[in-house]
C-alpha cells in the first residue's frame, strides 16, 4: 500500500476508535438524538426543527436495528469523511506527508471528537462546508466545471441537512466578488450548478411554504429563548477551545493567504471566513455554528507549516509541531468530552467552571455541562413509563403524552412495550394520532410544573395518580414526573385537537 494511503487509513481507523472511546459508559443517547431517530418513522420533506436529510440516515439506522452502535457509527463516519476531504485539499495544494499528518492530527485533536459522538445534523453540516470550499479550491486550480457541479450538489445536500450552510453562501459569494476569482460569475457552469442545487432543495422549500415556514418560527424561538443568553465573549472563547491544540494552524493559514504567494489564488477563503464569522458574531450565534469554517483553514495552515519547516534545522521541529495538537488537546480532552462520570465531574468541577462549560442555555451554572446532563436519566424514564403501561388493561386506548421531545423520543427508543409517545413539542406535534378513542393518558411532565396535583385534568378522568419521577441527580430532566390519567369521562381527542391547533397558531 502507498505510504500516503496507509497513513490515511491509520488516521481513519484512529478516528473511529476515538469516537467510541470518547463517551463514558454512564452516559446515554443525547436528548436531540432521540428526536432525529424518531423521524425515521415519519419520513417527510421537512420538519419543524431540521430539514429531511437526517431522517434518511435515521431510516437506515432503523433498518440496521436502531442500536446505539449505529447511532454512533454515522456521525463518526461523517467525521472521517471530513478528515478525508481535508486530506484531499492538502494534496491538491501540494502538501506532502508532514502537511497531511498535521492536518489530520489537527482535525482529530479538536472539537470534532465531541461533534462526531452525537447523532445530530452538525457532523454532516461541517462535512458539507468543507467539501464546498474544497470544490472551489479545485475549480480555481483546474477551471473544470465539474467542481462547480459538485459544489452545487453538496451545498444542496447541506441545505437539506441544516440551514446553517446558508451562512457559507453569505460569506463565499461576496468573498469571490472581492478577489480575482470573481470571474467565476461569468461562467455558465456556475449558474447551471446553482440551478441543480435549487432543483434538489425545492421539495423542502415547498414543504416550508406549505407549512407556513416553520423554520422562521424556530429561528424566533432560538433568538428569544437561547441566543439571547449567548455572550460574544463566550463565542470567541469557543473558537479557541474548539481547536485548542491547533489554533496556531488556522491562524497561520489566515496569514499565509497574504505572505505565501502560492496561496494568493485562494484569498477568497480568507474573506469568506471573515464575512461568515462577522455574521455569526452580529447575530449572537452559538459558538459551534462556525465550526464548518475551520477544516479548510487547517488544510491551508498545514501546507504552510510544511513550507516553513522544509529546510535546514527547522526540519527537526516537525515532530514537535506534530506533537503540539496531541499534547495541548489531551489536556482538555477529559474536560470537553464526556469521558468522566457525572459523579467525578461533580466532585471536581473547577476546570469545567473556569472554561464556562457548566453554564447552560438559561445562563446559569449547573453540576454538569448541559450536553452531558442531556445524556442522563432517559433509560430510567422509559423503564418507569413501561412499568405503568404494562399494568394497564386498555393499552390500545392509552396515549403516552410528554412535555418535550427528549422525553417522547427516549421512551420510544428504550421502550419494551411498543409505545409511541408523543408531545406538543417540536415535530411530535404533527405525529399525534387522534383517530382512535383515548381512554387513558400516561402524562410525563417537566419538573418546572405549575400544576403538580393535576387539578386541571382531574375532572376529566376517573383516576389521577402520580406514578413516579426521574431520580437521577445529574439528569437535566431530574424531577420530571409520570402521572396516570385513567378512565376518561369526556372525549379526549377533540380537546387535544383544539390544543394542537392553538399551539400551531402560536397560542400557548
Describe the protein in words.
With 508 residues, the protein is mostly helical. Helix content is 56%, strand content 6%. The chain contains 22 helices and 5 strands. It has helices spanning 3-21, 31-38, 53-63, 68-92, 97-108, 112-115, 122-142, 145-159, 166-177, 188-210, 214-225, 232-242, 247-259, 267-282, 294-308, 318-336, 342-347, 350-354, 370-373, 378-390, 405-414, 493-504, and strands at 398-402, 422-423, 440-445, 461-469, 481-488. The chain has a 5-stranded mixed beta sheet with strand order 2-1-3-5-4. Helix 21 links the parallel strand 1 (398-402) and strand 2.
List the helices and strands and how they pair.
Blueprint: H1 3-21, H2 31-38, H3 53-63, H4 68-92, H5 97-108, H6 112-115, H7 122-142, H8 145-159, H9 166-177, H10 188-210, H11 214-225, H12 232-242, H13 247-259, H14 267-282, H15 294-308, H16 318-336, H17 342-347, H18 350-354, H19 370-373, H20 378-390, E1 398-402, H21 405-414, E2 422-423, E3 440-445, E4 461-469, E5 481-488, H22 493-504
Parallel strand pairs: 1-2, 1-3
Antiparallel strand pairs: 3-5, 4-5
Short account of what is shown:
The chain is mostly helical and 508 residues long. The protein has 22 helices and 5 strands. A 5-stranded mixed β-sheet has the order 2-1-3-5-4.
Helical percentage:
55-70%
Q: Strand share of the residues?
A: 5-15%
Average pLDDT level: 91
Give me the secondary-structure category.
Answer: mainly alpha
Radius of gyration of CA atoms, rounded to a whole number: 25 Å
Distance between the termini: 63 Å
The backbone outline, from C-alpha atoms, is globular
| Order of secondary-structure elements | HHHHHHHHHHHHHHHHHHHHEHEEEEH
Q: In this structure, how is the largest beta sheet organized?
A: 5 strands, mixed
The number of distinct helices, counting runs of at least 4 residues, comes to 22
Amino acid at each position: 500500500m502507498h505510504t500516503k494511503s496507509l497513513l490515511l487509513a491509520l488516521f481513519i481507523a484512529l478516528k473511529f476508535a476515538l469516537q467510541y472511546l470518547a463517551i463514558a459508559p454512564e452516559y446515554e443517547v443525547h436528548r436531540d438524538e432521540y428526536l432525529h431517530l424518531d423521524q425515521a418513522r415519519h419520513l417527510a420533506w421537512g420538519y419543524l426543527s431540521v430539514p429531511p436529510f437526517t431522517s434518511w440516515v435515521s431510516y437506515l439506522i432503523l433498518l440496521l436495528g436502531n442500536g446505539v452502535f449505529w447511532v454512533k457509527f454515522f456521525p463518526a463516519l461523517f467525521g472521517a469523511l471530513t478528515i478525508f476531504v481535508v486530506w484531499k485539499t492538502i494534496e491538491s495544494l501540494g502538501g506532502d506527508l508532514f502537511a497531511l499528518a498535521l492536518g489530520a492530527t489537527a482535525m482529530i485533536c479538536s472539537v470534532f471528537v465531541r461533534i462526531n459522538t452525537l447523532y445530530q445534523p452538525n457532523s454532516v453540516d461541517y462535512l458539507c462546508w468543507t467539501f464546498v470550499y474544497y470544490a472551489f479550491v479545485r475549480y480555481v486550480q483546474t477551471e473544470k466545471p465539474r467542481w462547480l457541479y459538485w459544489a452545487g450538489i453538496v451545498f444542496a445536500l447541506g441545505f437539506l441537512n441544516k440551514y446553517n450552510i446558508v451562512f457559507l453562501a453569505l460569506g463565499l459569494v461576496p468573498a469571490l466578488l472581492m478577489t480575482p476569482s470573481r470571474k467565476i460569475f461569468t461562467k455558465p457552469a456556475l449558474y447551471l450548478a446553482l440551478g441543480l442545487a435549487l432543483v434538489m432543495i425545492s421539495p423542502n422549500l415547498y414543504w416550508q411554504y406549505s407549512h407556513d415556514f416553520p423554520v422562521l418560527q424556530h429561528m424566533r424561538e432560538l433568538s428569544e429563548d437561547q441566543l439571547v443568553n449567548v455572550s460574544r465573549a463566550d463565542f470567541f472563547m469557543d473558537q479557541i477551545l474548539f481547536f485548542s491544540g491547533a489554533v496556531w494552524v488556522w491562524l497561520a493559514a489566515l496569514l499565509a493567504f497574504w505572505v505565501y504567494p502560492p496561496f494568493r489564488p485562494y484569498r477568497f477563503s480568507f474573506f469568506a471566513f471573515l464575512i461568515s464569522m462577522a455574521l455569526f458574531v452580529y447575530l449572537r450565534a452559538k459558538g459551534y455554528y462556525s465550526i464548518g469554517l475551520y477544516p479548510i483553514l487547517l488544510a491551508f495552515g498545514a501546507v504552510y507549516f510544511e513550507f516553513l519547516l522544509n529546510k535546514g534545522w527547522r526540519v527537526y521541529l516537525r515532530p514537535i509541531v506534530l506533537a503540539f495538537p496531541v499534547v495541548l488537546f489531551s489536556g482538555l480532552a477529559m474536560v470537553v468530552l464526556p469521558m468522566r462520570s457525572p459523579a467525578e465531574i461533580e466532585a471536581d468541577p473547577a476546570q469545567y467552571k473556569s472554561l464556562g462549560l457548566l453554564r447552560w442555555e438559561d445562563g446559569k451554572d449547573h453540576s454538569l455541562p448541559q450536553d452531558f446532563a442531556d445524556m442522563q436519566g432517559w433509560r430510567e424514564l422509559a423503564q418507569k413509563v413501561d412499568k405503568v403501561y404494562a399494568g394497564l388493561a386498555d393499552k390500545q386506548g392509552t396515549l403516552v403524552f410528554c412535555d418535550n421531545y427528549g422525553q417522547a423520543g427516549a421512551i420510544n427508543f428504550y421502550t419494551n412495550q411498543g409505545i409511541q409517545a408523543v408531545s406538543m413539542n417540536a415535530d411530535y406535534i404533527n405525529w399525534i394520532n387522534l383517530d382512535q378513542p383515548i381512554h387513558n393518558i400516561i402524562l410525563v411532565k417537566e419538573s418546572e410544573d405549575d400544576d403538580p396535583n393535576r387539578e386541571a385534568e382531574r375532572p376529566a378522568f376517573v383516576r389521577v395518580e402520580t406514578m413516579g419521577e426521574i431520580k437521577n441527580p445529574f439528569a437535566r430532566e431530574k424531577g420530571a414526573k409520570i402521572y396516570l390519567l385513567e378512565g376518561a369521562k369526556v372525549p379526549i381527542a377533540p380537546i387535544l385537537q383544539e390544543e394542537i391547533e392553538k399551539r400551531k397558531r402560536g397560542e400557548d
